[in-house]
Structure formats: C-alpha cells, structure tokens
C-alpha cells in the first residue's frame, strides 16, 4: 500500500472512530428527547422506532398542565431556578470577596485557609446530610427554598473560591497599581479595573455553582416535604411507581430539566475546562 | 492558567502583606490595610465554618450517639444519648454495610479507570481529528456531559428497560449463534437489568462513564494542545510508535493533568448517589446500596437512626480523605514551598 | 402497610356481639355526640385552620367523601380544613420529615400497624377521651389493640379490611377458568392466563415491595407459620419453622415458576394495580380500595363485572389466612389546633362518618351493626370470610423497620429467587436479623 493510501485509510478510520464516539455520546440524549415526543404506542413497544413518526406534544402538555405530585412541572422548574439563582447570587459575592483576598493579599493564615478550602472540597456532601438537615430544622427553614439555597451555597463555595482565585490572580497586578498611582480608591480599583477582567471567570464559576445547585438531589429530597417546594430532581422521582412508569412524561420533564444546563455548557464550554482544571492544579 | 502572581508573593513570608509595598494608600474606610483580606474572608469563612466544618464535627460526634426523632424535633427536644461505639459495632455486624463497602470500592475503581481510559483515548483522538470533525465530536460529548445526574439515571434506566428498552432490542438483533456463543443465550426479551446488584452496577458504571468521560477528554485535549509540536515531530523522525510516543512524551507532560483528573474522578465517583437512586428507584434493593445510599437509608427511613447514619457517613469520609490525602499533601506542599 | 391486625379473635359475629354489648353500656354517659356538641356551641373554631392528611390516591370516591366530611366539619365549627393526600409509598418518609421538622398536620389518617411506631416516636397525641365516650365507645375494644399503649389510646379505628384475590373475571370467562379452590388450581389458572394473554402478563403478581408481607404473610400463616412470637419481653423469630418455610417457598415460587416476571421483584401493590389496570396482570392480592384507582388508570375500561374477588385458597383447599387490619384516624402530637383536631377526629370517626368512610372506601366498618349488615352482601363475602381468620404482624414499633426499611423478608426472597441462597439459608439469616430488629430498645 502506498504511504498516501495508508494515510488516507488512517484518516478514514480516525473519522469513523470520531463518529462512533459522537453517536455514543449523543444517542442517549437523542433518545430521551425523541421519547418525549412519541405516542405511547411507539414508546411501549419492543420495536426500534428511530424517529417519532407519530410526533406528539401530549406528554409535554401533560407535564405542564397536570404535572406530577399535584403540581405542574413549571412549579418545580421555578423552584429549581430560584434555588440555583439564589445560590449563584450569594455564592458569587462571597467567593469573589474571598478569592480576591487569597489571590491579591498575602496575610497570616492564608495557607491555612487554602488547606481548609481543599479539605472542605474533599468532604462528601452526603456525609453532611444529617447535620445540615438538623441545622436547617433548627433555623426553621424546612420546606423553604431558602434552606436549600443555604445548603447549596455551603456546598459550592469552597470550589467557587478555589476556581475563582486563579481568574483573579491571572489579572496582571500592574493594572491595579497603575490605577492606585492615579489616585483611585481601592474600591474603585476593584470595581473599575479588577471586576471587568475577572467577570468572565466569575461567569464560569457562577455557572458551575448554578449547575451544581440545579442538579442537587439528596438535600432537596430530605429538606422538602411539601410537594409545592420540590425541585426538578425530586419531582422527577414521582413519575416512577405512583401511577406506573409514565416514560413519555418522564422524558418530557427530563428534557426540560436538561435544556438550561446544555445551553450554559455550550456558552462557557471552554472556560469550564480551564476553570475546573485551574481550580485544582496549582502551578 | 498558572497563577504566577500568587506564587511569587506566596507563603514563606508570614508578615502582614500591606507592609511590603510602602506608600500604598489606605483609602476611604480608614481601616488598616492588613485587615482588608480578613474582612474579605469573613463571609466565606462563616459559610464554610458553619455549613461544612462544624457539621463535619457534628457527624463525628453523632456517630457515637443515639439520635432519633425525639432528639431532633424542634418541640420538646430530648438530649441525645451516648452509646459509645454501639453504632459502629451494629453496622459492622450487618452484612448490608460490607456489601455497601464492597460496592462503593469496586464501583469507584472500575468507574474511575474506565472514565480515565475512555476519556484519554477520546482526548487523543480529538487532537488528531480535523477541525470540523473534532468540533462535531466535542459538541456531541458536551451534551452527554451536560445531562443532569438524575436525568442520566433516567435515560439509562429507560435504555435498559426490561420490556421496551433499546438494549434488549439490540441484543436480540445479534445473530442467535453469536449471542449464544458470547452470552449463552439468544433471547433477551424482558431481561431485567435493574434487578441484581451486579447488573445495576454495570448499568451505573456505563452511565457514569458516559457522563464523565467528556470532561476528561476535553481536559486532555487542552493539555495536548499545550505540548510543543516539535516534540512529536522529533519522535516521528525517530520512528517511534504511537504507543511509545504517548508513553514517553504525552503521558509525562500531562502527568499533573492526570493527577488532578484522577482525584476529581475519585471524589465524584466515590459517593455517587443520584444516578444510583434513580436506577434502583430509591433505597429498595439493599444488596445494591453503596455507602451514601446506606447512610441515607439508615438516617432517613423510618424509624430514623441518625446516629448509625452518621457512623456510616464518617466511614465514607475517612476513606475518601485517606484516598485523596496524597493529593492534598502535594497541593499543600506546592502552596507552602513556592 | 395500610392495613394491620385486628386481633385474631375478631370474628364477625364476635365483633358484633361485643359491639352490641358495648353499645348498651355506652349510651349512658352524658357526653353528647360530636355533632351535637359542635352545633350547640356554634362556630367555635372560626378563623382557625386545620391540616388533615389523607393517605392513598385521591380517587373520586375518596375525594368526594373527604370533601363532604370537611364541609360538614367546617359548617359545624367554622374552622377551615386543608386536605393533603399522601400516596401510600411515601407515607413513612412524609411522617418522618414532619416529626423531625415539626411541620406535621393536625389530624392524619394512619395505618393501624403504624400506630406503635409513631407512638414510640412521640408523634401522636393521646386521645383516650374520644374512644371512652360517644359513638366511639361502641367500637369493640378488641379493635383497639394496636392503638392502646400503656393504657392510653392514640388513634381511633376508622375502617377495617382484609385482602382477597382480585382477578380479571372477563378473562376467566373467556378462557373458561373456574375460580380456583386450591393453590394448585390458582397456579394452573395463572399459567393459562399467561399462555393466552401473553408472556409479559403476570398470571398472579408477585409483591416484593414495601407491602410484600401482606402476600407472604397470608401464605405463611395459612401454612401454619408465624413471623415471631413474644416470649417474656423478647421476640423470638419463627421464620425457620418448617411451616413458615412452606409458605415462603410458595411465595418465591410465584417468580421461579414464572407466574410473575423476574423483572419486577420490587413492585408493591400500587405498582401491581397500575399494571392490572393496563391488562398486564391476571390476579393479585388486594382489597376493594384498589377498584376506584383501577377504574381511573384504565380510563374507565376496567370496572363492574370485568373484575371480581375470591378468597385466597389454601394449599389443599379451603381459605387462606388473610391479612387483616385497618386504617385509623389520629391527632398529630404537635397539632397547632389541638382542640379542633380532636373534635374533627370525633366527628370523622363517629358512627355517621365512620361507617361512610368504610363503605365508600371499600373497607369494613368498625361499628358492629354496620358490619353485620355488610356481611350479608354477597360481594363482601370473600372479605367477611377472610375477616374471620385474621392474623397479625408482630405488634412492635420496630416492625416497620423490618417490614419496610430493612425489607428483611423481601431480601430473603430475592436471594432465593436469584439463586444466591437456599430457602433455609435465607430464612436463617432473616430470622436472626428480624430478632435483632424487633428486640432493639
């Protein structure tokens, strides 16, 4: 075989493998979406029906109106959004402050703080379930979204600070120093110089927190006992068992839950990787 | 992504930092400069202390107490009762604990290994693909990565459904002789994948690998892009094989990346809960519990035994901390030395 | 879960006799009936709001009864009542969360075998005064066995019930199947159904979920077995007795003989009911409270003479020991409106609304006269028959942990079905575990 032919063959093989990976990754997602739009006849069959030829909005309509556990899916989407956004807002402010302290100042106890951050990240959230549950009870926040926000802020903050400090540190110090020399106050410097440059990092960190809070199941499961306060991950459990497994409705709801995350991922794809890696690798 | 500014100014000099740059103006607030970082840290420290560190201490205490509903309710609360190591001897006596421990460890080893292998292979592949093709694949794997854990569980539960699942359909497509040869059977209709502990974990591993290999792949790709092309050029001139090139150039240069990816994967996989919860339909099949699920079931199923739940959680935490200690030490060292 | 014991001696006639006796003595106290007292004092709770938890699905019949009851109470007392429905599989989680968070209702329906557990968790308020007077004094005292702990009563029996085999009468007719008189006939009928109606149909559905012991218990008791008996103050497990093993093997054979698919080892009655409504089950053990749900799930296609009950047959003919129990109504320990809550329970469990609760909901009334009347109805005959042979789970607060949380017997059955252990091995282990659970303080 000529080297050229071999090279071409290799290229074809590479592309074929790439395509295979693509299909492996995307097919389950596609299957979720397509099931959401199939009629029950086409869902409960032992045949393989690649496309919903009997395209229907019945499941989407049903989960939006009738919903599950007594509420429309909108209620749960709303709860999830409130929890995730609340977590992001509180978390962003706290982590920006702490990240600035760690990345811009050298102070006594800085290394200790960094170690604490690291160890805090290693603690499995599941281990904290019991004491945090008791804490939330003590605060009287059972069945309140605020309780869930509080917990999620706690769970996402160490990583948020850890991730954000690299973004802060990446902003050249000389810029701020120039501003000081011009007589700007620290606050002005922070707001006018540092903040705009850190903003993209803050967005990435926030989206990370958003997704974590959006996806969180176990705390929502134990903290929310009223169905009107369920978040999406909890509400989805109620499709199983209660009235038999209504796969059409489950897939319609799962699709709705997945859409915001996919959108965010596509927006910050590159920064997520940088952030996650930078958050963890030092030097 | 390196943060040289921090490093050059980093530890080793414990004196308050403000002093180092004479002439820096202390503005507006009138607060001494040295206090600024502490002020900035207050909210974060409060949250971490109150929501992570103190609760962890509480877990450690509760593991030696009997804590049920009368001890936690807001009205008419009873003090918890000290029971010494009873909680531990009770869970160690129970076979559920040992199967949960085994499930946790075996799952973590398999899932982490497979995720890393598949992810690295795809990362290397992405690096070799043309621009269009690699963009396509990246977008594709992004979707898998973005799916929330609960939805991941749901999707794969559906694919592996006994009656209408596509996996059983596909296995039925295999020529009978092949299926019989490989699996010892030809008919897969109604095969209940989510019944036995071992097959639940097989599905769980597939689910978790499917959802987490994209992150590894994209990270490895980012790392690979940073390796100078000349190195590969030189290897090619020397006639080195692809495997040799990977072993001698790619792997050593990406070692720090792999270290991080491994630790992150371990942390994520050790305590997998959402996907397992969905695949099993809650804590139903006790043989398929992992430590997270066991702790949850003890503490929150009636009658709630928060003490034993805490004891299991403590075991899980200790295992995780020991496994990741090496990594933490390395990071701490870097933090201190530079 | 939803139904528990009414002591074994509760034969219909005995209950009737006792009830009549109680009836004679109970009229004497001056305490007027709930309705009378409420109307006498006018709208004494106006502006107050009660939360009332009902358990199960809000099917139309149950919803209608609840609406009427609530309306009657609201009219008499001026209080508002907020009703919340809690599906059976979530009851324990919901109770746990409520007891822990102090967010419970004022009044709740409760399975009578759950009363010892929630009493031990101090989640229920004592209401001995309610059962001591008025209509409630007519409720036979032997029906208060699980509700009375250390001399205090914590719940009022609301409706009793037993389980029988619900079957597809239309299929039986099509396939010319006679109503099984022995266990072997039942197995043959199930096989025939599967043959004709498809392999994915369960001839007789295996229940391995949260209420699995209702089925297993019936089989084991019929064979003469017991779960555990109390000797002194210790529970002694009886799972390894040959009699229990016979019933247990009958139970696991439902799956190993293929009457029920191996892919649904964890299904509970609610899940079986849904499959039944979708033409995927030929027979299963339940009670008439499932009928409204089946009607709804099948979109009105399955009702009337398409389905019927027969008593679970024993191995060599005769009726099996059915599991028997009931639902109660209780006042939550941390009720915000304690007085109003007690009055609500008084009204709901009084003769008028208590009997209506049972008859509308497909249960047996706890009032002797109403029960005697019901027993004349041929449709209720299977239940009346089963009622005569009641058996009980161990009456212990820890039973729920063995029954649901640790699923001791479900797990043993799974081991045997999956071939990981023999019945002897599995039952041996389960016996030790059951003893440990029941005997913990």
From TrEMBL, chain A:
SUPFAM superfamilies: MetI-like
Keywords, comma-separated and alphabetical: Cell membrane, Membrane, Transmembrane, Transmembrane helix, Transport
PROSITE patterns assigned to the protein according to its UniProt record, in alphabetical order: ABC_TM1
Keyword Transmembrane helix: yes
TM annotation in the entry: 12-33, 81-102, 114-134, 146-168, 189-211, 247-268
Membrane topology: Multi-pass membrane protein
Coiled coil stretches, renumbered: none
Localization terms from the record: Cell membrane
GO CC annotations on file: plasma membrane
GO BP term, pick one: transmembrane transport
Limits of the ABC transmembrane type-1 domain: 77-268
UniProt-listed Pfam families: BPD_transp_1 (PF00528)
Family: Belongs to the binding-protein-dependent transport system permease family.
PANTHER family hit by this protein: INNER MEMBRANE ABC TRANSPORTER PERMEASE PROTEIN YCJP, MALTOSE TRANSPORT SYSTEM PERMEASE-RELATED
Protein name: Sugar ABC transporter permease
Organism from which the protein derives: Nonomuraea glycinis
Automatic annotation (TrEMBL), chain B:
Main location: membrane
Pfam families reported for this sequence: BPD_transp_1
Locations listed in the record: Cell membrane
The ABC transmembrane type-1 domain, residue ranges: 101-327
Membrane-topology annotation of the record: Multi-pass membrane protein
BP GO annotations: transmembrane transport
Keyword Aminoacyl-tRNA synthetase carried by entry: no
InterPro entries in UniProt: MetI-like, MetI-like_sf, UgpAE/MalFG_permease
Membrane-spanning ranges: 31-54, 105-126, 133-151, 198-224, 253-270, 310-328
Keywords recorded for this protein, A-Z: Cell membrane, Membrane, Transmembrane, Transmembrane helix, Transport
CDD domains associated with the record: TM_PBP2
Region of interest (Disordered), residue spans: 1-26
GO CC terms of this entry: plasma membrane
UniProt cross-references to PANTHER family, sorted A to Z: BLL4140 PROTEIN, DIACETYLCHITOBIOSE UPTAKE SYSTEM PERMEASE PROTEIN DASB
Family (UniProt): Belongs to the binding-protein-dependent transport system permease family.
The protein's name in its UniProt record: Sugar ABC transporter permease
Automatic annotation (TrEMBL), chain C:
Biological source species: Nonomuraea glycinis
Pfam families on file: SBP_bac_1
Signal peptide positions on this chain: 1-28
Family recorded in the similarity comment: Belongs to the bacterial solute-binding protein 1 family.
Top-rank taxon: Bacteria
GO BP, one annotated term: maltose transport
Name of the protein: Sugar ABC transporter substrate-binding protein
One cellular-component annotation, GO: ATP-binding cassette (ABC) transporter complex, substrate-binding subunit-containing
High-level lineage: Bacteria, Bacillati, Actinomycetota, Actinomycetes, Streptosporangiales
Keywords on record: Signal, Transport
UniProt xrefs under Gene3D superfamilies: Periplasmic binding protein-like II
Gene Ontology molecular function terms on file: maltose binding
């Amino acid at each position: 075989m000529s080297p050229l032919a071999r090279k071409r063959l290799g290229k074809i093989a590479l592309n074929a493998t790439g395509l295979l990976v693509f299909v492996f990754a995307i097919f389950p997602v596609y299957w979720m979406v397509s099931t959401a739009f199939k009629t029950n006849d086409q869902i409960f069959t032992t045949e393989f029906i690649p496309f919903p030829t009997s395209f229907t909005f019945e499941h989407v309509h049903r989960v939006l109106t009738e919903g599950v556990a007594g509420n429309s899916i909108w209620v749960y989407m709303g709860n999830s959004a409130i929890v995730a956004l609340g977590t992001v807002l509180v978390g962003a402010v706290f982590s920006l402050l702490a990240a600035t302290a760690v990345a811009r100042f050298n102070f006594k106890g800085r290394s200790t703080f960094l170690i604490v951050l690291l160890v805090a990240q290693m603690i499995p959230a599941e281990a904290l379930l019991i004491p945090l549950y008791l804490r939330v009870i003590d605060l009287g926040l059972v069945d309140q979204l605020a309780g869930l926000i509080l917990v999620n802020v706690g769970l996402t903050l160490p990583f948020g600070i850890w991730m954000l400090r690299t973004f802060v540190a990446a902003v050249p110090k000389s810029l701020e120093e120039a501003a000081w020399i011009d007589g700007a106050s620290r606050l002005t410097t922070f707001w006018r110089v540092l903040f705009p440059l850190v903003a993209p990092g803050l967005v990435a960190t926030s989206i990370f927190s958003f997704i974590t809070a959006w996806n969180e199941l176990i705390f929502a499961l134990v903290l929310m006992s009223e169905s009107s306060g369920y978040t999406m991950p909890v509400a989805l459990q109620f499709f199983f068992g209660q009235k038999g497994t209504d796969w059409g409705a489950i897939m319609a709801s799962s699709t709705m839950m997945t859409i915001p995350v996919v959108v965010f991922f596509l927006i910050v794809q590159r920064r997520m990787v940088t952030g996650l890696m930078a958050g963890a690798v030092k030097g | 992504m390196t943060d040289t500014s921090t490093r050059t100014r980093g530890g080793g000099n414990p004196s308050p930092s403000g002093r180092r740059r004479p002439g820096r103006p202390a503005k507006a607030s009138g607060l001494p400069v040295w206090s600024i970082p502490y002020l900035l840290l207050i909210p974060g420290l409060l949250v971490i202390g109150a929501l992570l560190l103190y609760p962890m201490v509480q877990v450690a205490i509760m593991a030696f107490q009997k804590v049920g509903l009368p001890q936690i309710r807001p009205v008419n609360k009873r003090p918890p009762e000290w029971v010494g190591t009873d909680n531990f001897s009770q869970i160690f006596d129970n076979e559920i604990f040992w199967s949960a421990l085994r499930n946790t460890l075996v799952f973590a080893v398999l899932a982490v290994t497979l995720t890393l292998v598949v992810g690295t292979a795809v990362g290397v592949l992405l690096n070799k693909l043309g621009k269009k093709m690699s963009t396509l694949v990246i977008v594709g794997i992004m979707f898998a990565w973005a799916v929330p854990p609960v939805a991941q569980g749901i999707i794969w539960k559906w694919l592996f459904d006994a009656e209408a699942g596509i996996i059983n359909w596909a296995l039925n497509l295999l020529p009978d002789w092949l299926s019989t040869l490989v699996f010892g059977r030809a008919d897969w209709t109604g095969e209940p994948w989510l019944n036995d502990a071992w097959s639940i974990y097989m599905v769980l591993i597939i689910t978790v690998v499917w959802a987490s290999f994209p992150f590894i792949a994209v990270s490895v790709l980012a790392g690979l892009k940073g390796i100078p092309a000349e190195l590969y050029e030189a290897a090619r001139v020397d006639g080195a094989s692809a495997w040799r090139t990977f072993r001698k150039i790619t792997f050593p240069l990406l070692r720090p990346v792999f270290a991080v990816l491994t630790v992150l994967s371990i942390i994520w996989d050790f305590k997998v809960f959402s996907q397992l919860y969905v695949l099993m339909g809650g804590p139903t099949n006790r043989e398929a519990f992992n430590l997270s699920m066991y702790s949850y079931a003890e503490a929150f199923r009636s009658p709630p035994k928060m003490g034993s739940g805490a004891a299991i959680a403590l075991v899980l935490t200790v295992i995780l901390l020991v496994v990741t200690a090496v990594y933490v030490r390395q990071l701490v060292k870097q933090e201190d030395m530079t | 879960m939803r139904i528990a014991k009414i002591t074994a001696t509760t034969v219909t006639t005995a209950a009737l006799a006792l009830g009549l006796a109680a009836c004679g003595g109970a009229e004497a106290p001056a305490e007027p009936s709930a309705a009378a007292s409420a109307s006498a004092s006018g709208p004494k709770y106006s502006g107050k709001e009660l939360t009332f938890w009902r358990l199960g699905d809000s099917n139309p019949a149950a919803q209608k009864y609840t609406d009427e009851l609530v309306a009657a109470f609201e009219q008499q007392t001026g209080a508002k009542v907020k009703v919340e429905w809690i599906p059976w599989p979530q009851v324990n989680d919901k109770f746990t969360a409520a007891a822990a968070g102090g967010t419970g209702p004022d009044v709740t329906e409760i399975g009578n075998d759950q009363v010892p557990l929630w009493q031990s968790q101090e989640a229920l308020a004592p209401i001995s005064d309610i059962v001591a007077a008025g209509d409630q004094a007519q409720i036979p005292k032997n029906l208060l066995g699980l509700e009375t702990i250390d001399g205090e009563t914590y719940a009022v029996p609301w409706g009793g019930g037993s389980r029988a085999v619900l079957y597809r009468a239309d299929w039986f007719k099509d396939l010319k199947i006679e109503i099984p008189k022995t266990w072997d006939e039942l197995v043959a009928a199930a096989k025939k159904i599967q043959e004709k109606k498809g392999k994915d149909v369960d001839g007789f559905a295996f229940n391995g979920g949260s209420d699995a012991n209702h089925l297993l218990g019936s089989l084991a008791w019929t064979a003469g077995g017991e779960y555990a008996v109390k000797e002194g103050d210790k529970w002694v497990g009886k799972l390894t007795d040959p009699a229990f093993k016979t019933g247990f093997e009958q139970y696991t054979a439902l799956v190993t003989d293929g009457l029920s698919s191996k892919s649904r080892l964890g299904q509970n009655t609610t899940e079986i009911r849904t499959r039944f409504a979708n033409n995927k089950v030929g027979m299963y053990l339940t009670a008439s409270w499932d009928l409204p749900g089946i009607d709804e799930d099948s979109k009105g296609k399955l009702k009337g003479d398409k389905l019927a009950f027969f008593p679970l047959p024993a191995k060599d003919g005769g009726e099996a020991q059915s599991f028997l129990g009931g639902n109660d109504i209780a006042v939550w320990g941390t009720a915000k409106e304690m007085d109003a809550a007690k009055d609500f329970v008084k009204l709901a469990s009084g003769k008028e609304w208590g009997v209506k609760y049972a008859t509308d909901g497909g249960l047996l009334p706890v009032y002797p006269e109403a029960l005697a009347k019901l027993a004349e109805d041929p449709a209720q005959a299977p239940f009346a028959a089963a009622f005569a042979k009641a058996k009980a789970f161990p009456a212990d607060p820890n039973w729920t942990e063995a029954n649901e949380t640790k699923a001791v017997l479900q797990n043993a059955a799974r081991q045997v079905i999956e071939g990981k252990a023999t019945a002897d091995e599995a039952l041996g282990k389960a016996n030790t575990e059951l003893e440990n659970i029941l005997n913990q303080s």
